[in-house]
């Protein structure tokens, strides 16, 4: 995938949040996109967009659809406090389908809260360590499990992206990143800027088999 090259992307979680912004930006850039959705009618129609009805936890219904795509991008998310397997089980199915269909490039989203920098402000460390992570412990546990599953896929060209708190702010393109290390300080990031990074760094060699922390500049 060269810079400016039109590609075929398969997006999980493309009906809302970061995923919806990713789909919109990819289409605006001239790419062809396939999105998995439980309710296809919730996804705006576009000539270069194919929407596949399905559940990420049931790959038997969509796995073959990955054939012919250049990259898979996962923006799966859950704010549920109950135990969940959407991250780990979902990614297990995604990777299996990628291998079967011969797709190697994968980018997925987790959270900067999984590994805070020791240099982060004390207030931020206390809030996340004592409030946020305990409150959403099941989600973070499954998210961490997904990271381990992805990192073990040595045959794939994967990227794990860890954003901070996400907002519905505008696209600015003003963000900083760190490869396989912590940013000393993170600031909230718009979902549009996160989508911009995901879309525009698929051919970034530094991001291959790496974990990227990202933050608003």
List keywords for this structure.
Rossmann fold; 217 residues; 5 helices; SDR family oxidoreductase; Polyketide_Oxido-like; single chain
Reading the helices and strands in chain order gives EHEEEHEHHEEEEHE
Unreliable residue runs = none
The main β sheet shows up as: 8 strands, mixed
CATH class: Alpha Beta
**Strand-residue fraction?**
15-25%
CATH architecture descriptor text: 3-Layer(aba) Sandwich
> Largest beta sheet: what is the strand line-up?
3-2-1-4-5-6-10-8
Shape label? globular
Overall number of structural domains: 1
Rg result = 16 Å
Q: Percent range for helical residues?
A: 25-40%
End-to-end separation in angstroms reads 27 Å
Task: Briefly say what this structure is.
The protein is an alpha/beta fold and about 220 residues long. It has a single domain (about 10-215), classed as Rossmann fold.
Commentary on this structure:
- The protein has 217 residues and is an alpha/beta fold.
- It has one domain (8-216): NAD(P)-binding Rossmann-like Domain (Rossmann fold).
- Helices cover 30% and strands 22% of the residues.
- Helix 1 (17-28) crosses helix 5 and helix 2 runs parallel beside helix 4.
- The protein starts with 7 loop residues before the first strand and ends with a strand.
């Amino acid at each position: 995938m060269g810079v400016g090259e039109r590609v075929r992307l398969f997006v999980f979680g493309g009906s809302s949040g970061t995923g919806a912004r990713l789909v919109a930006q990819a289409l605006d850039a001239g790419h062809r996109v396939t999105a998995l959705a439980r309710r296809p009618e919730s996804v705006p129609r576009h000539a270069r967009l194919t929407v596949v009805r399905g559940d990420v936890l049931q790959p038997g219904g969509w796995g073959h659809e990955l054939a012919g795509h250049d990259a898979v991008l996962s923006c799966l998310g859950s704010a549920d406090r109950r135990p969940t397997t959407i991250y780990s089980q979902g990614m297990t199915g995604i990777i299996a389908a990628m291998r079967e269909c011969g797709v190697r490039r994968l980018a997925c989203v987790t959270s900067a809260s999984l590994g805070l920098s020791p240099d982060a402000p004390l207030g931020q460390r206390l809030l996340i360590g004592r409030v946020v992570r305990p409150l959403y412990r099941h989600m973070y546990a499954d998210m961490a499990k997904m990271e381990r599953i992805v990192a073990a896929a040595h045959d794939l060209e994967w990227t794990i992206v860890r954003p901070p708190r996400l907002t519905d702010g505008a696209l600015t393109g003003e963000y900083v990143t760190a490869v396989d290390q912590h940013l000393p300080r993170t600031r909230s990031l718009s979902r549009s800027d996160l989508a911009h990074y995901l879309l525009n760094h698929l051919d970034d060699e530094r991001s291959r088999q790496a974990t990227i922390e990202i933050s608003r500049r």
